[in-house]
Amino acid sequence: MAAQNRTYGIDLGTTYSCIAYVDDTGRPVVAKNAIGQETTPSVVYMETADHVVVGQDAKSSAKLYPDLVVSLIKRQMGQKCDLTFHGTGHTPESISALILKEVARSAAEHTHEEVRDVVITVPAYFGVAEREATRNAGEIAGLNVLNLIPEPVAAALHYETLSAAPGRGPSTILVYDLGGGTFDTTVIRLEGDDVRVVCTDGDHRLGGADWDERVAGHLLDSFLAENPGSSAAESEDFLQELAIAAEDMKKGLSSAMSRRYNMRFDGGTARVELTRERFEALTEDLLARTFEITRRTLDVAAAQGVDRFDDVLLVGGSVRMPAVAEGLRQRFGFDPKLHDPDLAVAKGAARFALIEAVKVRLPGEADAASDAEVERAVEQAADQLGLEPEKVRMLAGRRVTTVVPRAFGVKVVDFTGDGREVFSVSHVLKANTALPADPVAERFVTAYENQTEIGVEIWEQAGSVESDDLADNARIGEGTITGLPRIRKGSPIDISFAMDELGTLTVHAVELQTQKELRIEVRIQGLSESQVEQARQAVARYAVSQ
Fold first, then answer.
1. Residue 260 maps to which CATH number?
2. Tens-digit pLDDT profile for residues 450-475
3. What whole-number distance in Å separates Cα of residue 345 and Cα of residue 155?
4. Which residues pair with 67 in a beta bridge?
5. Alpha helices in 91-127 (DSSP H)
6. pTM
7. Which domain holds residue 247?
8. What is 40-71 written as a DSSP string?
């Protein structure tokens, strides 16, 4: 039976992106791009007012047209960042949409069918704003985003460690995911058809691009040392050359013990030999940061009763650096597995996309559907997706449970002995709480006499660890309970936080004396629905190529 409405998994990476689908034999397959490669550089060259280039040619154009080329845009997701090219404004969402549009277009050429229903991957440590921006990027690209999936969960699905052998029993895996621009560590518990994220941690501004930057800096320093007084550091063209060379040298040092590079600029020359030992010394602190995050993850997992792992999986192109596996062995005693690190996330996302496609076609648990109605829905889904009915039933029974990526809370005020106000964040919804999350309400009290309204500011953990310091958090929403009589200082307020499987955050606050309440579904102060539609129309007008 041939698939009729195929679904796709897209790994929207910081440095490279990839798209995959599950073929008629049940295998995840990567759809190659227009030039026959499995991954596409996440680089956009805004060539003209109506034509953009995405991929390798865009990356090569950075040297000639640095002001028209955008890279590493994933690091700006969820942030206010306005870019202008040829008189047209862009955001991280619209630039990401151009990447998504091109990988979808290439996949359509590869499979000879429209790419419409997709699942897009996100770093496990992405917060609400970044996830919302990623979903918007998919919509701007003209795609139907069924769901988002954390990259480590997608990778685990690909490794098929989620399909426990008969009689094997529950198992636990640790995913170490070092991509081009982000890093995550995630502990996943597997039991039957249930896939549960135990905990996750990471840094969405740490990745292979930082290793490249260190090497490029080393090359520049070496050139300037041999050519004092040179203006090489002010030349965009020369710096772009070094950036490209640095990435090549980093990749080469994963298999070779040394690499050489010859530099020329304005009559000056320099020849640099970079050994693997020197490379590892230059980047030692970056790798140490990943191990620090890994240690934090292991400590959190241990507090939840997880102290051993059946598998340790290495994901992301940067894990090919020998120091990664060696460091994990020396520091933690792990024996990590390296398999298909560049494609694992996209292939796993394709599996998850198929699961989601099945579930959207079947009655939900809350629906009062009869057995006959369910069976008709199964048959219809099987026909639409080109699957056997038994396969549909199996996929519908698989549950993937993720966790709250960061802590969320409200801004509170306390007073010093001399009456000065001190503001901080009290976290109500803790990181690594299983989704859907609906913890009990927490009791707060009014801070001032005769309040007639109560402002509720919602804050999200922004630092690497939970902290009540405002500087380590970011405000993501607010609301006000109004129309109160003059209430006394110390009047009680209950505030609860809830988050669903899609990452939508809902805050409910009740002033207990009057029972006046406030309910906020947090919509990040990013793009509005009208702005998303406007961006979708603008992106649709571009001709995109590789």
1. 3.90.640.10
2. 999 999 999 999 877 889 999 999 89
3. 4
4. none
5. 92-111
6. 0.86
7. 208-282
8. EE--EE--SSSEEEESHHHHHHTTT-GGGEE-
